[in-house]
Amino acid sequence: LDIVVTEVVDINKFWVNVRTTDTLGAREKVMDCMDLFYKMEGKDMYVEKVFTGSVVAAPYYQEGYHRVKVISVVKDIIGVNYFDFGTVGVVRKDQLRVLPGMFRALPSQAIECCLWGVEDRVGMARERFRELVERGNMSGGFVAIV
Fold first, then answer.
1. In this predicted model, what pLDDT tens digit does every residue of 71-108 receive, in sequence order?
2. Using alpha carbons only, what angle is made at residue 23 by residues 125 and 57, rounded to the nearest 5 degrees?
3. Neighbour tally for 11: CB within 10 Å
4. Contact between 97 and 42 (Cβ < 8 Å)
5. Is 40 exposed, middle or buried (0-12, 13-18, 19+ CB in 10 A)?
């Protein structure tokens, strides 16, 4: 099974994506379609009311719109989880867009994981894990083939 680590908080909380032709192709197709959609007919589909738990679209830096779940709302500052990667971020409410059903069919692509049985009392395991992830990302995006 080929996986890529997409986000690391620590050894007890990180996210992976399964890398197969089918999963990568499906995710990339959704991302490409969303990019086109929100540049054209979806550009004015603003979210009227936002609540913790809402599933909407939000920009990810300069990479276009991604599917997100709202994790916090403080006035017009919205905390989001980019659930296809496990990444978290903060956006303004006016950056959120309604997520049509055609973009909801694909299940979340990020799988939350932990390293079971690894104790990290002084942070050495976390640092070594991050080092392995970074090395894997430089050599094709994976740490190991399981």
1. 999 999 999 999 999 999 999 999 999 999 999 999 99
2. 85
3. 20
4. yes
5. exposed
Answer for the pair 76, 84: CB distance below 8 angstroms, yes or no: no
Q: Residue 144 has what pLDDT?
A: 43
Average pLDDT over residues 133-142: 67
pTM: 0.83
Q: How distant, in Å, are the alpha carbons of 30, 38, 77, 107 from that of 102?
A: 9, 13, 27, 12
CA atoms within 13 A on the CB side of 54: 21
Copy the structure tokens of residue 11: 């050894």
The fraction of the chain above a pLDDT of 90, given in percent, is 56
93: amino acid identity, one letter: K
Q: Exposed/middle/buried for 116, CB within 10 Å: 0-12, 13-18, 19+?
A: exposed
CA proximity to 77, closest of 63, 87, 91, 88 = 91
Question: Identity (one letter) of the amino acid at 122?
Answer: V
Is the separation of the CB atoms in 108 and 7 below 8 Å?
no
